[in-house]
Amino acid sequence: MAELRRLELVSSTHEKQESVVQTIAVLGVGRVGSAVARTALAAGYDTRVAGSGAAEDIELLAEIVIPGARAMTATDAVSDADLVVVAVPLSKYRSVDASMLAGKTVVDAMNYWPPVDGQIADFEEDIASTSEVVSRYFSGSRVVKTLNHIGYHELEDDGAPSGTAGRRALAIASDDEAAAAAVQDVLDRFGFDTVYAGPLATGRAFEPGTAIFNGAFSQNDLLRELELNLHPTH
Amino acid sequence: MELGAYSFGDTQLNPDGSLRSTAEAIKNLFDAIVLADSAGLDYFAVGEHHTLEMPASSPGSMIAAAAGATKQIRLGSGVSVISTDDPVRVFQQFATADAVSGGRVEITAGRGSSVESYPLFGYNLSDYERLFEEKLELLMRVNEQEQVTWSGTTRSPLQDLTVVPRPVDGSLPLWVGTGGSAPSSVRAGRLGLPISYGIIGGAPHRFAALSDLYRRTAEQAGHAGANIKVSVAALGLVAPTKQEALERFYPGWRNMHTQLGKLRGWPAPDDNAYLAQAHAPGAYYVGDPDDVAQRIVHLHGFMGHMRHFLQMDIGGLPQEHFLESLTLLATEVKPRVERLIRIEG
Amino acid sequence: MHEASPLGMELGVYSFGDTQRNADGTLRATAEAIANLHEAIVLADAVGLDYFGVGEHHTVDMPASSPGAMVAAAAGATQQIRLGSSVTVLSTDDPVRVFQQFATADAISGGRVEITAGRGSSVESYPLFGYELSDHDQLYAEKLDLLMTLNSGERTSWCGSVRSGIDDLVVVPRPVQGSLPIWLGTGGSAPSTVRAGRLGLPVSYGIIGGIPARFGRLADLYRATAQRSGHHGPNIKVSAGTFGLIAPTKKDAVDRFYPGWRNLQLLMTQRRHWPEPERARYEEQTHAPFAYYVGDPDDVAERIIDLYRHLGHMRHFFQMDLGGLPHEHFLEAITLLGTEVKPRVQRLIDRL
């Protein structure tokens, strides 16, 4: 297994990315989607939201619950977005049109939680991490797993400016390092440090039931937890 | 001998014969159970129907309400139409009532006297046998065990699942209710369940052959003891005089027969038939306390039943007559029955 | 800021009938838990509380499996308190049976019964009644539609995919109130809020963590959606169910609530892999602006009013008896809520 790298190593190269994220589309306006969208707005991103239901309902919802976000159809929301956050219930991930997201950087903020949401065959029958299963569906996209292991309340409460002592850190997993770097930059503006755990398979280390999922960690502590989880012999 | 009443919560009528509100009928039924308890009756049962004339659609809720407002009376269903219900839900409702009552609740499972519940809950009457058989089996199982495993064709299976709350005394008394068929008697005997006969016409002592069959089947199946027992449910009304009882019961009886006759193609109600049934050896326990007591004890000589309970409030009987009859049953009929049984004994 | 209703704020309690514990931590009988719950409702009525809700669960530690039967039992033993479910897990039940049970209780209570339909906080009912959790959305939408249809008139015709059709059949008894108040219960998602507003149903928020004042924007969304859908009047209203316990002093309250809270968290740790409970995190939640209304009468009254400024809710009701709270502490908290918190809340509202 690849050595863990602190994201500082990756971030030193991210200036070379052709584009910096400016526009974020959030698919799903439930508790997680709403909180992510509000956080994105607060961080200064141009933010679009889309959800199931009548367009006029979603517009009113955005106006009141996510003021500043633009409600549109999923297709319009993602068309010129630099980053797409998928925050629908995991049981509905196949309701998101994968072709629409081709070529996009896609954050998988979903969790598989059978005691609450029921068993889903896709994930019961596959031993891969949930984000690997999801990324096979979004096969044309650069899937990044993160934002799944922070409570929607905490997302808006725990953020702090870069450099704040003990700033909370979030884990990131992706098979695409450039995509991971872009997301790291976004999360920094959201108010969080980050640790790049490695490929999507390492996302297992912060799925429900893990110490990382259940806790809140500074960057150093998160790195230690990931080491413990992914390299238990060390 | 325990004495009691059962009711379908029949809706009262306005002077012009139109129905009053179903909510009022439910409240009246509740008041009647509370009175039966304070007067000293032993048992009250509520039967399930789904019509404007008989709106007691949820015996579980009626019994739960009564459980919270009574002190000593035993409470049950007469009957729970389990074929069209979920035995797990039925058990949960009655076990909840049992806990609230401090252990005074029973269930009687049966076919019931009406069929409205089949279309309402999406069942086919032609599946009745299988529905009843399987659901009774499941009801018995949830009654005995907190962790239940069961599978069948009439409901989704249960794989080691918890069913709560658990009854105060470990399990609820569970009866089989029947209009008096031999196969039902055999079934109850085989299962070792107590049996409740609903006798709504004919000469009640003829049911003695069935109760003998029940007891013999139970014995052959190896069931003995306190659970092998018989109760009788019959139409009846008690009033200060026989004449008053006959006059009070008649309009409601006539309403019910007219109404059911329309649904089931019965002949028009026959006044002579009414009077014949209302005197020994007929099936209507309509009379003064002496008359009703003597006829109950007479039947006891044939059937050896341990509980006799009467359906009084049919077809919109005025509530005050219902309440007076319950009071007389407890305060006048009951001591007479006890005395007569002692003498007979 | 919203208009105070002329009646002020209703106060109440909700419970899952949590089973009490023996000194060694083992569970006592479920039947005892049910009898205790009944006693608590009767007391709540006697001390003048406005509402009691019973929530459906199916476990040995939360044995109130039949809110309909509990509410019926309470209907026959109380004088003035309104009674409801918090919540009825409608997705796995038959709306016809649910309606019949609550309408029966309504008749007995003289018109004091309500239904709150929601997803609920647990999932045991799915395997127990043969449903798939993944069908939840459709089950809920269709069954809510059927329940509303049953509630609107004596004869019902309905067809859908999650239950057999009903062809012009009578469903009785009919409620004293004409129809039963039906609430939509939600943990606070925007789409559920929109649904309630669109349907013109009152909404009940279960606020079990975070900062309750944040639900203000959901309440705004609810009212705006209702208005746009043409719904207004007394049916457009908001209630809040939260954790809470009242004791003579804040310290008593915090100490009394903690063991039960911890027991519940441990259960969730076991069943849903929640993090291990921590006392410090707990204590933080018991102070403003957080979600546990655990305190003395002054503290709780002030925090209810603070939430009212954001939510404009007309009813605030507390889940007190978590995880085997000793019954006497439950009863004392109910008494204090009725006799001490209620007048304080009224005074504070009058001043607004």
Would you kindly provide a written description of the structure presented here, covering whatever features stand out?
The complex is a heterotrimer of chains A (about 230), B (about 350) and C (about 350). Helices cover about 35% and strands about 15% of the residues of chain A. Chain A has about 230 residues and is α/β, with parallel strands linked by helices. In chain A, strands 1, 2, 3, 4, 5, 6, 7, 8 and 9 form a nine-stranded mixed sheet that branches. Chain A is globular, with a radius of gyration of 17 Å. By secondary structure, chain B is an alpha/beta fold. Chain B contains eleven helices and eleven strands. Chain B has helices at about 20-40, 60-65, 85-100, 115-120, 130-145, 180-190, 210-220, 240-265, 270-275, 290-305, 320-345; strands spanning about 1-5, 45, 75, 105-110, 145-150, 160, 175-180, 195-200, 230-240, 285, 305-310. In chain B, strands 1, 2, 3, 4, 7, 8, 9, 10 and 11 form a nine-stranded parallel sheet that branches. In chain B, α6 links the parallel β7 (about 175-180) and β8. The radius of gyration of chain B is 19 Å and the shape is globular. Chain C is α/β, with parallel strands linked by helices and about 350 residues long. Chain C is built from eleven helices and twelve strands. In chain C, the strands form two sheets. In chain C, strands 1, 2, 3, 4, 5, 8, 9, 10, 11 and 12 form a ten-stranded parallel sheet that branches. The radius of gyration of chain C is 19 Å and the shape is globular. Mean pLDDT of chain C is about 95; it is low at about 1-5. At the B-C interface, α1, α2, α3, α4 and β6 of B face α1, α2, α3 and β7 of C.
Layout of secondary structure:
The complex is a heterotrimer of chains A (234), B (345) and C (352).
Chain A (H helix, E strand, L loop, with lengths): L6 H5 L11 E5 L3 H12 L3 E5 L4 H11 L4 E2 L2 H6 L3 E4 L18 E4 L5 H4 L3 H4 L5 H8 L4 E4 L6 H6 L10 E7 L2 H14 L2 E6 L12 H4 L2 E2 H12 L4
Parallel strand pairs in A: 1-2, 1-4, 2-3, 4-5, 5-6, 7-8
Antiparallel strand pairs in A: 6-7, 7-9
Chain B lengths: L1 E6 L14 H18 L3 E4 L12 H9 L6 E4 L9 H15 L5 E4 L6 H5 L6 H17 L2 E4 L7 E5 L11 E5 L3 H10 L3 E5 L8 H13 L9 E9 L3 H23 L6 H7 L7 E3 L1 H15 L3 E5 L7 H26 L1
Chain C lengths: L9 E6 L14 H17 L4 E4 L12 H9 L6 E4 L2 E2 L5 H15 L5 E4 L6 H4 L7 H17 L2 E4 L7 E5 L11 E5 L3 H10 L3 E5 L7 H14 L9 E9 L3 H23 L6 H7 L7 E3 L1 H15 L3 E5 L7 H25 L1
Parallel strand pairs in C: 1-2, 1-12, 2-3, 4-5, 5-8, 8-9, 9-10, 10-11, 10-12
Antiparallel strand pairs in C: 6-7
Helix pairs in contact in C: 1-11, 2-3, 3-5, 6-7, 10-11
